[in-house]
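Technical annex B. To support the medicinal chemistry partners, we prepared a structural model of the target in complex with zinc ion, based solely on the information shown next.
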Amino acid sequence: MSYVLSIVSKFLKSAIPGVSTRGAILLQVGLFAIVAALAWLPHDSDRGPVATVSQAVLPVIESPIPPPVSVGFSTIEVVVSRNDTMDRLFRRFELNLADLASLRDLPGLRSQLDKLHPGELLRIMHHGGELVGLERKLSDSETLKVTRDAAGFVSDVLENPLEVHTRTASATIDSSLFQAAADAGLPERVAFELAEIFQYDIDFVLDIQQGDRFTVVYEEIFQDGESLKSGNILAARFINEGREYRAVRYENAQGRGEYFAPDGRSLRKAFIRAPVQFSRISSRFNPSRRHPVLNRIRAHRGVDYAAPVGTPVRAAGNGRVKFVGKQGGFGNVIELEHGSGVVTVYGHLSRFKSGLRRGQRVELGSVIGYVGMTGLATGPHLHYEYRVRGSHKNPQTVPLPNAEPIAESERDRFMAATADFVNLLDLPAGPALVAR
Ligand SMILES: [Zn+2]
């Protein structure tokens, strides 16, 4: 039995890349796309920008004015490079600048021509330098088409809608998540996102075992009957060492997508474990340690993360600046207050984020300062503490609270929006149909 969900969507707005892995993954995918586009398109390495010229026969124009001189026109295909503007392209290809001026006078066209994006493809049709037509892809589903007729230039936006299908795939891991995903015909991007969704529960480097299984329900985007790319993961389940984790995507009323357990619990934690990208832990939480500088027993009530001077230090959770300034052996230090009695402390900073002041709100993951060795420190590192109601906890092992669940006021909307996709997780995988 199979279900197919088919939604004709206006246009798929991909989520805004957040901090952390997501940004990196998207960047990677983006770069890959650009490289692929450049490799695919013919280009002339000496000139930088790409141009191919082909001859075509001008179609018969039903016009009282006969076409000029000859009946052939040339097509130039250009891959836009950095710093290219329409003006520069017109000059480079010796096209009539007066034509460009006329184009810009068409309603709405100036804005559609002024900002070119590196890597995009333009098609320019001309006849001995006189512009005959122009095509520019505005988005995956829209193409701007300018043509010239007897009266002048005419522009039109051609719609080529994307179709979003829902696909379900399952796989059992033999060697790695990525291998299993590839064997199941899943794009690499879906595997990356799957790992990101469950990153707070599963360590995809250390915890993955042979025999782990997953099912993923995701969007596949088609155009003209061909698969173009993958969209969002809508629901997923992952069985790691016999333990099952489930996730479902929910887009709130503001259009922001986030993953929750099907019962509405957040899959994210309210804190990140280590607020800095570190090379090693130079000193662990230890209530009876000999202090390296003072050379006497003094409790080490935090973790020292060794990292080069200047490495960004991030807020471990949403909160408010409780203290920012100098404090004895800690040197430049920041204290954040997170509610429920949790306070985090960041010591030995080289400097603070400019403008950071007491009372200011900070968001999880935002940069608050930079690694240094101010105060009593033998080398550059971040001294990080996690306190609960005044008592120091081991930041490496303290159970971190979950982020906020679905708000009570959104609960009904959440359940209604996600039920179908959660159900798909329990059906046999395959192309599927849900009409809506
Ligand atoms: Zn320390």
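Notes passed to the chemistry partners:
Helices lie at 20-40, 86-92, 97-105, 109-114, 177-183, 188-197, 411-424.
The radius of gyration is 29 Å.
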